[in-house]
Amino acid sequence: MSEVGRRRFLAGAGAAAVGVAVTSTTAAAQEAEAGVSLPATTVRPGDARYIDMVRGTNPRWIGSPEAVRVVNSTAQVVAAVQEAVTAGKQIGIRSGGHCYEDFVYSGKQVVLDLSELDDIGYDPAVNAISVGAGANLFQVYEALYRVWGVIIPGGSCATVGAGGHITGGGYGLNSRQFGLTVDYLYGVEVVVVDATGKARSVIATREANDPNRELWWAHTGGGGGNFGVVTRFLLKSRTATGTDPATFLPKPPSEIFLHSVAVNWKDLTEAEFATIVGNFGKWHEQNSAPDSPYAGLFGLLKLNKRTQDPITKEIGGQVAMTTQADATVPNARKLLDDFVAYVFNGVQASRTANITRAGHFAALPQFEEPQRLPWLNGTFALSGGGWEFRGDYKSAYMRKAHTSEQIAAMYKALTAEYNNPNALVQIDSYGCKINSVASTDTAVPQRDSIMKLQYQVYWKDPAEDARHLQWFRDFYSSVYASTGGVPVPNAVTDGCYVNYPDIDLQDPTFNKSGVPWSTLYYKGSYPRLRQVKAKYDPRNVFRHRQSIEP
């Protein structure tokens, strides 16, 4: 078995035939074949490591479980799950620690930490690339690209764990060109618990004759923590043939253009703000077909909060746009220049360097002039880093450009007296290859959207939680006021992204639409997801505040 991770891949974990359950009875054989490996570890209150291991990237969510179980093999996961189930303990699952809501720790007595389950390699038993659920995205990118010259079209935040990212769909700056990560998901290895309370591991693939195929489908966008504990992902294109991993996944362009430009809020009129947001949307309406020559171009329009110095009254902040574009396609530089010109057409305010940090992402003044970089180097350059602020998040899919009412609501909120430079809405490119897949082929039903929005707010002082959350909720609700405060699936909007979970969606105080949170995430896929839940987690062992209902 080829080996790319920092430890040997667990050879026995993939040795069962496709679609056949792998049970914990193989644990000893797996461990014997694994060679040098880490033992399972339990961390409890009083251990110096504990405080580090009961929190993720958002310091709003700090847990107090009885134990954190650090596992690094499927056999160890089976044993930990069995022990918790037998003892009647609720289980939380942590991969990269980036969950936006308190789903991992809230009410959980045992948290499984999968961060050491990070091996990456080729599994000949299923003829697919295998990625441990604890590997972070940049571990995956580096291993796949340096060894085989291939990638998954995942996100741009380096430390996000594969476990949560892929189960929710997985998209990023290469998705217009290659699709979602789940479009390349051949199979999953999952630890599930049956009606008798017995834990076992199952390999489920997309093969038509696989008896566990529905479990595979549920993991192509059904979200993490719903059906069991994913221990690894099996990746391979639907069109791949042969046994060479270098042919299993897409090859990125050898070089990309990176460009980042901004307009200062102090120079921007309301009409010009509306022009930028409107143009960005109209461009995507015209250039998001699967065969578009712009499929290799991905824009991120960052509408940062306008601020005012309390003493000098000087206006601060920027509206910024960062673009990644395939530099190897014909007329690549002209495609990039034409895109930027279209978005800022009709805007008199001068464009300048992007000097504003936006959420997890640093300012990018070095890309005021487009730079041509090798793909991996450029991917590192755009990576989001650590962020120790408290935060909250919301999302929306867009099928059309924003309406004038939505843009006016954005402007009003972003120019309000609320004086926080760490608040924004980021409008991302979508569509193209993503939309070449049918809405029922995966559990991601949004397959004709052209943009995706991520609303973000950050602050430091816990005593200010209520103030920041009030502004943030009012902002979001005002943009979708015509549909009850949320982006109800219709001709313009198409619901929310499950990987940006938002507990407010199930609160009638904030969601006045009458459309349930499950429809906003999953649309017509939800009944099918519930059937999978009933079959593979009949005891509802794997649950959180917004999990699939049994």
TrEMBL record:
**Cofactor(s) annotated in UniProt:** FAD
- PANTHER family, from UniProt? BINDING OXIDOREDUCTASE, PUTATIVE (AFU_ORTHOLOGUE AFUA_1G17690)-RELATED, FAD-BINDING PCMH-TYPE DOMAIN-CONTAINING PROTEIN
Q: Which family does it belong to?
A: Belongs to the oxygen-dependent FAD-linked oxidoreductase family.
Give the originating organism. Answer: Kibdelosporangium philippinense
Q: What InterPro entries does the record point to? A: BBE, FAD-bd_PCMH, FAD-bd_PCMH-like_sf, FAD-bd_PCMH_sub2, FAD-linked_Oxidoreductase, Oxid_FAD_bind_N, TAT_signal
By what name is this protein known? FAD-binding protein
Q: Which PROSITE patterns match?
A: FAD_PCMH (PS51387), TAT (PS51318)
* Keywords in alphabetical order: FAD, Flavoprotein, Oxidoreductase
Q: Which residues form a coiled coil?
A: none
Q: Where is the FAD-binding PCMH-type domain?
A: 54-240
